[in-house]
Amino acid sequence: MKEEITESEAPTVSLGKKLANLRLEQGLTQRNIASKIHVKTSIIEDIELDKTVNAPAVFLRGYIKHYATIVGLPVTEYQEYLDQLSNQQSSNTMKNYSNKEQNKRNGKRLLFISIFILVIIVGVTAFFTWQDNKSELIEVTHYISKTPSTNS
């Protein structure tokens, strides 16, 4: 009696394993699937190993749907996984929004600091140029004679 395994107690096989097993049963290679879906073989490998694929969730959903239809996996088998991807995508969107706001604030702060430094540099340069020109002025009073010259 204890040896009977009910469906709820059975170890769950991951979606990647299911897809890989069905692919092998049909005698297809990862390269065959990749060429039918028009993706790199590494993406198919990552899907089968349940690794995170470096692609937007929208594309990943399409890859999995197309892969499942090629190997004949019913929709009910992978729909829950696609729903989880949708939930992850919506939570990532909120994180990105706050990051954009933070980046915008940092950008404004950086712009203000850059303009402030530029104004200081221009001011210091103008001051020293004015001081340099002021010291180069020649007093010409000693060249003028104090006695009027007589022109006859």
From TrEMBL:
CDD domains: HTH_XRE. The chain crosses the membrane at residues 110-130. It holds the Pfam family HTH_25. The keyword Transmembrane helix applies. One of its GO terms (molecular function) is DNA binding. It comes from the Bacteria. Keywords: Membrane, Transmembrane, Transmembrane helix. PANTHER family: CYTOSKELETON PROTEIN RODZ, PTHR34475. This is Cytoskeleton protein RodZ. It comes from Orbus hercynius.
